[in-house]
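Complex 484.
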Amino acid sequence: MKRLGLASIGALPAGVACPDGRVLAAKPGIVHLGIGAFHRAHQAAVTEAAMLAGDGDWGIIAASLRSPDTRDALMPQDGLYTLAVRDASGERLQVIGVIRDVLVGPEDPGRLVAAMADPAIRIVSLTVTEKGYCHDPATGTLDERHPDIVHDLAHPDAPRSAPGYIIAALRRRRMAAVAPFTVLCCDNLPANGRTVHRVLTRMAELIDPDFGRFVASEVGCPSTMVDRIVPATSDEDRARVSALLGLADAWPVMTEPFTQWVIEDRFPLGRPRWEAGGVQFVSDVAPFELMKLRMLNGAHSSLAYLGTLAGLTYVADAATDPAFVRFLSGLWGEIAPTLPSGAGLDPSDYAANLLERFRNPALKHRLIQIAMDGSQKVPQRLLGTLRQRCAADQSWSHLAFAVAGFLRFMTGSGDRGEALDIRDPMAAVFAAAAKGDNETARAMLGIAAVFGNLAADEAVSGPICAAFERINRLGVRAAMAELA
Ligand code: CS2
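Predicted structure with D-mannonic acid bound:
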């Protein structure tokens, strides 16, 4: 089968949308760090829509900070890939062309820094996952002992971490009197712009206090809320999409029809007219972010841990299982009253829509994919809500149960004693706390980088430990039935 690429794009079947000459000829204006499936289904698709609507030179140079896999899949097809938008009613295919080059950081860090320092680049965006910011998830400050940060401070021109690359490029631009690019975080961190700004400022300060002041005052990091469900691509997806195209695509991306991107409009060097791709520009992202992180991601993580322990595989399995649906409704009932108004959405409508999205039968979204990196996710997804409910003396038994499910998952075995695939940068710390008895929960809650001082507060830690004990003794399903 012929490969998807510029030479074969004319042979695509009718009905498959594709980039036009303006998109393919555009000069780069954005460097994106972290070219995973999420970026390709979300920011890249929206940028493509802006360019199809006539916007100018906002092509994307994407970079991987780890493996060459995506570059090796996409560059032989001239950066083109298929976005497959799927639900019960069918599948719509679009070939995206806005990614003009893919660099692999570790192969040549200097090349990536030089690309970011190019004055034509006005935005550096990121999807490097929560752990990619090398911060302490409980406090949101730079983890100065993180091995990549220690490395990057010692070798500032050959960085490894995302903050290290940004700092190296900002220094280079400053020396050449080129204004700083806007840094656009598109990860699910709390107050993501402010968190990145804090991390970058601290790193700059450690290099030189004057540079620290420069980053603090001159580098803009608007906050964003990003939302689109993008399961990992399977071999079956590759084969199906290639057959539909009649051309081999080494790495298509699967997603749902829903997409949302809310951004604070602070871009001193300009930005694409993303409005054409449906972006909402606002002065404060916080209400949107809290709604999404707590309702969607909070529920996602809860299902991931509890569902996996109970032996389920996909999000849609849990979202159509009556016991789990009852649990979700209790969980959302606890979360909704903690949300500020301002997102212009009624939390119960939002929850109803989430349940439909989770039930999408065409998305094979694995619970174990969401369960990954819980130490970096649980604080902003569940702990803030839980603390708020507890302080207001409002019930929070479902939130306690979800956190207990996370702790139980981190012990490494499911309800039937089966071994679980734990992928988490703090897996060893949790494993060391797993004593195999009910003291495990208390020991895990003592991990300050994740839980802060939660363990010391019996009013908070007590109910979580009790829920852990019930899950341990009865299994998730029976313990969940007691909860109802
Ligand atoms: C998920 C998110 O894997 C996860 O942690 O909760 O990737 C989720 O699908 C997105 O945030 C949806 O916008």
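The CA atoms of residues 36 and 61 lie 13 Å apart.
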